Structure formats: C-alpha cells, structure tokens
Amino acid sequence: MQKLEGQILKDYELRTTTSRSAILRLFIKNAFALSYSDIEREIAATFDRVTVYRTLKTFLDKGVIHKVLDDEGSLKYALCSEPCSTHEHHHEHVHFKCSTCGHTNCLEDVTIPMVRLPKGYVVAEVNLLIQGTCNNCQ
Amino acid sequence: MQKLEGQILKDYELRTTTSRSAILRLFIKNAFALSYSDIEREIAATFDRVTVYRTLKTFLDKGVIHKVLDDEGSLKYALCSEPCSTHEHHHEHVHFKCSTCGHTNCLEDVTIPMVRLPKGYVVAEVNLLIQGTCNNCQ
DNA sequence: GTAACTGCAAAATATTTGCATCCTT
DNA sequence: AAGGATGCAAATATTTTGCAGTTAC
User: Fold this and answer.
1) How far apart are CA B40 and CA B22, in angstroms?
2) Would you say the C-beta of A14 is within 7 Å of strand D?
3) Residue A25 to residue B115: CA distance in whole angstroms
C-alpha cells in the first residue's frame, strides 16, 4: 500500500504544513517524475512560487525525493522509494522516459549491470536513463 | 590525431566564423564536457552571450556536440566523436563525472550492457552517467 | 549579392534572498 | 513560547526574441 503524505512527513521528521502535504500528494498521485513547472501548474494558484522552490529543496535535502535527469537537461523530481532512502548503499537509479507519453518514471526493479571501466576509475554512483516506449504506450 | 576546428565546421557544412571557431577550439582543448558558463567564462569578453547560446544551439542541431547530463541537473555539452555523429545507430552514451576534479567526460570505449526491462518496454536510447573518481584523481 | 551570422537592447523565464508574519509543535 | 515555514517584494540569474548591421561564401 502507498504511504500517505502525513506518514511520510512524520518519517522524515518534517513539520506537517499545507504546502508540503499538497506537494507530496502530487508526487503520490502521479507515478512519474514531476518538473518544477508540473508542480507549479497544479499548485501555483494555492501556494507561492517561493514556497514550492523551498519545499522541493527541503525534500531533496531530507531525502524524501530525488532528482531525475531528463534527456533534455531539464530537471525533474520523484519520490524516493523505501530502499532508496533507507539503505545507505542504494546508489543506483534507473529511469525510463517514454517518448510517447512523455512521462519519466523510476524502474525500481531493474538493476544496472556491472560496467567495465578503464583502469583507474572508481565507481560511486550510477544513473541510467533509458528512453523509448513504455508498456502503456505500446 | 585531433581534428581542427576548421575541418569540423567544413564537415558539418557550417560557415566558418570567429565565434564558432573559438567555441569549437574550447571543446577541442578541453577533453571534458563544458557547461554554458564554462564557455562564457572563457569567451564572454570576446563574444556576446547571445552568440554563445545560438552557436551552441546550432552545434546541437547539426550534431557537432551533444548534451551531457550532469548529476546536479545542470546541462553540459561535449564534442561528438566520429562514430557518434556518423553512425545513425549510435544511441548510447556513457559519461563519467569525477567528484574530485569535477570534470565529466565521455567514455567512448565503454559499452552499456543489455538491461532487462519489464515486459512491454521498448528501448530506443540509453544514457549512463557514472560518478566516482577518475584515473587522474586516484 | 545574398543568405547567414552577430551584437545590442530588451523581453521573458527562472531562481534566490530578505524580512515580517503566521503556524506547528 | 519559539523555531520553523510561508508569502510578498524585489534582486539576481538565465534564456529567448527582434532587428539592424556585418560577414562568409
């Protein structure tokens, strides 16, 4: 079952405020990554731009959400999954961007195969962005 | 041997102008990916900001350079290698960002292993961003 | 000569900061 | 009550557009 926003805020020791709850709810409702403007589009009427910026920053700092790279270079954000935030060593992210529906989401179950790097390189973190067509848009 | 900027411009059927040559020379000189501000820092005195933006756009459109995703979400650019621009099917990029020196470069020789995706997903393009320590910074 | 490129000014966007007020705990 | 969060105003940064003058071919 999906966690509710109140619980998430409590878990991360964040105060429950209207804007945080609303933004979190957006992330919960949409399974895919949201850009700043996605969020603003849905919320701007209610909350100040600055609040949205600051809330995202707080969530990032606390590890509630993480950055998702878009192929165009625009940044998006997505909720961190349980393992992502609790296990220190979970330093891999696989994101899939569907070129049809335009949505980007995390593929939690996909693991990145070992990559052979040239001598002398040490890997700390790996990010994989895959583009193509998702199962819904086939 | 490294190609010279004049040759590159000719290859891509672009007019040879002072700013294009200068910006290309920057990319040739630096083996790593450059952000817009990296470029401006070195060039701004000589060329207008707008020219830099437009030149980068032209280079992107023609395939002279490609976008490099940064873990922070800031965009960088790097020269396309021969195979990158000539072979239609070269749709893979591996970039390595060293957390010590901060440079990001393309690992041309590294190929991305096949990734097993859930049923229904079709892959068109893959981007891998690896972070860690590069061979120089060990 | 002509189409393409550049620089300047200015518009449009995006992001950050300071501060007074309000709200959660 | 107190510290943290918000909203507003405004500063700063980033990117885009229009247009007139210049340049490569």
Assistant:
1) 11
2) yes
3) 32
CA distance B75 to B81: 18
Query: Which helix (DSSP H) or strand (DSSP E) does residue A117 occupy?
Result: none
Q: How far apart are the first and last CA of chain B?
A: 27
Footprint of strand C on the protein (CB under 7 A): A 15-18, 36-37, 49-50, 53-54, 57, 75; B 14-15, 17-20, 46-48, 50-51, 54-55, 58
The residue extents of the domains of chain A are 5-132
In words, the CATH class of domain A5-132 is mainly alpha
What confidence tens digit (pLDDT) does each residue in A74-111 have?
Answer: 899 999 876 565 545 456 789 999 999 999 988 888 88
Strand B122-133 vs strand B92-98: parallel, antiparallel, or unpaired?
A: parallel
Task: Characterize the bridge pairing of strands A104-106 and A122-133.
Answer: unpaired
CB atoms within 10 A of CB B39: 22
How many beta-carbon pairs under 8 angstroms link A with B?
129
Task: Please give the mean pLDDT across all residues of chain A.
Answer: 88
Closest CA to B39 of B5, B78, B89: B78
Share of chain A above pLDDT 90, in %: 62
Residue found by looking up tokens 């900001």 in the block: B49
Q: What is the pTM of this model?
A: 0.88
Tell me the per-residue pLDDT of A51-74, one tens digit each, with 9 for 90 and over: 999 999 999 999 999 999 888 888
**Chain-centre distance for alpha carbon A135:** 20
